[in-house]
Amino acid sequence: MTTLLDIDQLRTFIAIAETGSFTRAAEVVHKTQSAVSMQMKRLEERIGKPIFERDGRASKLTEDGERLLDYARRIVKLNAEALTTIAGANLSGRVRLGVPDDYADRYLPEIMARFSRSHPDVELTVQCEPTVQLVGLIDRGELDLAIVTHDAAGRPAEVIRRERMLWVSSSRHAVHLEEPLPLALARPYVGDRMCPWRRAALPRLEEIGRPYRVLYTSSNSTALSAAVLAGLAVSVFPESALRPGMRVLGPGDGFPPLPAFDIGLMRNPHESSELADALAEHIVQGLDNLGDAAAAE
Fold first, then answer.
1. Domain region containing 118
2. Which of 22, 128, 139, 172 has the fewest C-beta atoms under 10 angstroms from its C-beta?
3. 216 and 184 within one domain
């Protein structure tokens, strides 16, 4: 008899693989840790092989687990696409999305175009704010969904993409050679949380003994981009925020590598809706498409 894989178990499996922990995955999929453990036990029974091994306190995939992860992501994605396509034509109303302006230029065109084609009777309202402010709007029920920088959110979110953080300069200027190094960065704090870009970048310059000064500060990525493109400063941008005319600086230029970071999706904890679920699926699919396009390039 053919064994069928359970979609909900695969979603939980993906969450564990992306967070590295049963505990954090339980928060992402809104289940108890014991329920998550039971799901993974049943999944291993279905495939007849172990998919996790302990690595200290983290949960590491076995070789079979790594193979299953690729199939799991494709199965969950196809399942979502099928449901969205079949059910989408009947949806109407309004759905509210929040996104930091760091990601808006790259992510929103793909997401909005796909969502509008599938749900022509739905009004999509978009609000651009820093992650910390978006979390507050989600908590107050003023947004249905928010795309956030996971490290800046202050609590677990559904991880939907991992990106590189990059040093960037103007391709037409040599400002990266100046001493001290002029920087354009976001505000040090939004609320009580430090900007993750600053938290990653400044200690690395200090570690290599590179003197710097922060000349331009703004919470708006367009303003920071303007300072970079004008050749006035070096900045730190996520890969998705790179623009024509920018140059990525690496170890060959004297700039140490920066850590990757996770982009998460948060949902209104007070109520759920078919519209929000449909938009969430389009967001996940849209970011998958961006990843596929980047790999092709």
1. 91-159+262-296
2. 172
3. yes
- Cβ contacts of residue 207 below 8 Å, gap of 6+? 256
pLDDT bin (cut points 50, 70, 90) of residue 152 is low
Task: Look at residues 84, 104, 131 and tell me which one is the last residue of a structural domain.
Answer: 84
| Angle at alpha carbon of residue 279, lines to 274 and 284, rounded to 5° | 125
In this structure, which amino acid lies at residue 227? A
pLDDT per position as a tens digit, 32-87: 888 899 999 999 999 999 998 876 566 789 999 999 999 998 898 888 777 666 65
Strand order in the sheet with 165-170: 235-238, 165-170, 246-249
Residues 6+ apart with CB under 8 A from 283: 97, 107, 111, 145, 147, 160, 265
* pTM over the 0.90 mark: no
Residue 188 pLDDT more than 50? yes
Q: Which of 57, 84, 111 is the last residue of a domain?
A: 84
pLDDT of 88 strictly over 60: no
Do the domain assignments include residue 221? yes
- CATH code assigned at 246: 3.40.190.10
CA distances from 220 to 118, 129, 217, 224 (A): 31, 9, 9, 7
246 and 277 within one domain: no
Same domain, 113 and 227: no
Are the beta carbons of 95 and 124 closer than 8 angstroms?
yes
Rounded to 5 degrees, what are φ and ψ at 19?
-95, -20
